[in-house]
Amino acid sequence: MTTTRRSVLAAGPALAAAAAIGSPAFAQTQSAAGQGTAGQSAASGGQAPGFYRYKVGDMTVTAVNDGFASRPTEGFVRNAELPQVQQALREAFLPTNQFPIPYNTLVIENGGRVTLIDTGNGDSGAPTTGHWMRNFRAAGFDPARVDAVIISHFHGDHINGLRLKDGTAVFPNAEVMVPSAEWAFWMDDARMNQAPEAMRGGFQTARRVFGPIAKDVKQYEHGKEIAPGITSVAATGHTPGHTAFMVSSGNGKLMVMSDITNHPALFVRNPDWSAVFDMDADQARATRHRMLDMVAAERAQVAFYHAPFPATGFIAKEGNGYRMVPVQWTPAL
Amino acid sequence: MTTTRRSVLAAGPALAAAAAIGSPAFAQTQSAAGQGTAGQSAASGGQAPGFYRYKVGDMTVTAVNDGFASRPTEGFVRNAELPQVQQALREAFLPTNQFPIPYNTLVIENGGRVTLIDTGNGDSGAPTTGHWMRNFRAAGFDPARVDAVIISHFHGDHINGLRLKDGTAVFPNAEVMVPSAEWAFWMDDARMNQAPEAMRGGFQTARRVFGPIAKDVKQYEHGKEIAPGITSVAATGHTPGHTAFMVSSGNGKLMVMSDITNHPALFVRNPDWSAVFDMDADQARATRHRMLDMVAAERAQVAFYHAPFPATGFIAKEGNGYRMVPVQWTPAL
Prior knowledge:
Two copies of one chain form a homodimer. In chain A, 25% of the residues lie in helices and 25% in strands. Chain A is α/β, with parallel strands linked by helices and 333 residues long. At the A-B interface, α1, α2, β1, β2 and β3 of A face α1, α2, β1, β2 and β3 of B.
């Protein structure tokens, strides 16, 4: 700490404060976010409910947070050295040994119809997840009045919210819409039986969630308007049928990026990096570059499932990568 | 729009979507935030309450939002050309002709004591302000149980929340603490009488708010621990007694930057720029550089009154200026 910086706190009485600022303890990162101390709360109450509304043309979109999972940094990026990944986390002021990956779904209100895109972890996720239903209800919604649930892909953190562990259907009156390529892959018994042991869980999760409603699930193709104003966009690589969505109403547009990147601090900044979750890393990387390039050039508003809540913003080109610029929070719709 | 970008939406059925993305309407900025359409809400309800809690050691800090004011860009920065300022707004994906300036106060809970730093606009601000009390109550607080109100400086958007237009004291049981240099300047009748007409309002606001409690107001000096864990830090220039605060508890530290900058997208990025509100532009610029340099070097968590809600994050050095990195929202305290 230089004298110049120290001097800002003035001489004399403030030197104690200056000394405290100079101590290592002042070099903070957001360690609390990575430690899951969800039980603590202020005398006045807990955190504000995790929902955020914004308009897309005449539609109202609500981001609903399902908490986060703390993930060890080591081994998370297939093709980068640990110190590089830790440096990226440090630049985002996140903890570097493990870091919090957020989960955020979308609710779209359009002409009285309530449509979800993905569902969160339900009661099957990490202890720091499972906030979804409380936040959804705090936003004024009722799961029995959801008209449609659109699934981007079959990873558990996107589909487990459809069905509780005890078998309960969470949205009993909703049409469930899934990518046909995703269904073909994950519901193929022969493929499951040939899969390595580490991949079996994914096949079993798909059967647990969709099995009881298999005959009613509506499969959709890429490149179609699958609900009013919602067009499915092929974004394969992360999974065989992974889907992005263009949400459009009047002059309003939102590109729902799903899992085209995991945490933006890592993979928007470094689009060549591959998270361990990308099933076809090369295809996922090509998809990531194309989509980020498009939304950056068009200055399109975007939503990412694994961005920090409220998980919507814009993408700016920067160096060899991009930067996510969050929306400015507003009380106004 | 290049073929490469267009091709991400695949050929055939998705071409309609691709064409829509290519339209000018897809080049969005956050225009809604600047237009104050606060009356619109979704069928399911309005925006989530504007409070956000975080821990600083054993203390609980709650950011409370008071809305925003939409400000014409022209004439706002004294020493930059309009196109430069508009470019900075564009890089933040904000509207460029007028832009929303947020207001965010802090509530500090420490050992059962409730202390405010600044109070918002009360019922004296723009129609897009005045959200403070609703958000404060939504966070579980009661204005009658506020123990102390610490004022950073006497601009109306920081003090009008102390007293309604009809004269009501909003925090009837709170000790009110103000910077002595601020009191000496704004409560000086001779200075008011000599002031140019455009400055009279500021003197009158100070009298309206503090006049009825003048004998009870506690004046504090810079460089003192003025409440447990809260140290006043000289940050003059914006006003003659403008004050920052170091909030400290155990290993936790927070530097409350008050109005050392106005909107970070302009003045954290460009610390040499002077907003029209800075009364001594040179002194304010020197303070801004010193404080930003310090918190960047120390990776200190900061809070800014005019940053986008939740108005807390970190400062990274970038080029000739800095960048504010917001905290990652977390449901956990």
